Amino acid sequence: xxxxxxxxxxxxxxxxxxxxxxxxxxxxxxxxxxxxxxxxxxxxxxxxxxxxxxxxxxxxxxxxxxxxxxxxxxxxxxxxxxxxxxxxxxxxxxxxxxxxxxxxxxxxxxxxxxxxxxxxxxxxxxxxxxxxxxxxxxxxxxxxxxxxxxxxxxxxxxxxxxxxxxxxxxxxxxxxxxxxxxxxxxxxxxxxxxxxxxxxxxxxxxxxxxxxxxxxxxxxxxxxxxxxxxxxxxxxxxxxxxxxxxxxxxxxxxxxxxxxxxxxxxxxxxxxxxxxxxxxxxxxxxxxxxxx
Length: 292
What we know:
Elements: H1 10-13, H2 15-21, H3 24-40, H4 43-72, H5 74-77, H6 99-129, H7 145-169, H8 176-184, H9 201-219, H10 223-240, H11 251-265, H12 277-281
Helix pairs in contact: 2-3, 4-6, 4-10, 6-9, 7-9, 7-10
C-alpha cells in the first residue's frame, strides 16, 4: 500500500487559487489534476491528508514558530505582545522555559491530532453504515465560485452559532465538562500561541472540534470548500490566540484577539463566540479587564 503522504496535496491547496485566477487552460488543467486525485485515491485518504496538511500549514507550524519565538526570545516577543510581559508564556521576559508551558504545547498538538483521528473514525463509521453519507464530499464535480462563497458563509455562520451555544451553555455552567474546562483552559494566565487547542481532550472535542466539523456535515461541503473553510478557521485560531498586537486585517482579527483575552481575564463571563457577533447581539460581550 502506498504511503498516505504520497498524495500530491500541493494541487489541492495551491492549484485552486491558480486555477480560478488564471486562464481557461488553467481551469481545465486543474480539473484534470483534481479528477486524477479523486480517481486514484480513496475519498477518505484525500480528506484526511487534506485536513492534516491544512492544519499543519495554517495552524500547527505558524503557532509552533510563534511559541518558540515567545519562549526563546522573550525580550523581542514582548515588544509585539498586546499585554506586554504578562502575555508571554512565562509571564515576564526574564522568565525561564517552564515545564507547564511545554505541557500546554504538547496537549494542544495532541488535541489537534486527536481531532483528525476522530474525524477519520467518524468517516469510517459513516462509510460502513451509510455508504453514500460522508462528512466531506469528495467528488469529480467541482463547486462553482458562488457556491464556494455560500459554503464559506454558512459554514462560518453555523460554527459561530455552535461555538457560542456550546461554550456558554455547556462549558460555562455547572457540569463535569465545565469543571474540566475551568481547571484546564482557564488556568492559563493569558492566551499565547498554541493555546487555541489547549484543553482537556473531552472538552476539546465538544467545544472546539465539534463546532468546526459539524457545519461541514450539515452543509455537505465539497472538499475544496472544506479546505478553504478549514484554512480560514486555522488562521483565525493562530492569530486570535497569539497575543500579538500587530495583526493581519488589523481591526477584524485584532478585535477577535482582544475578545479572546477578555474572555480569559474575566473568568468566562462573556465573549463566548469566536467572532463576537452573537455576544454583541445577546449582550454577552465583555471589555478587557486586564491588570498587570
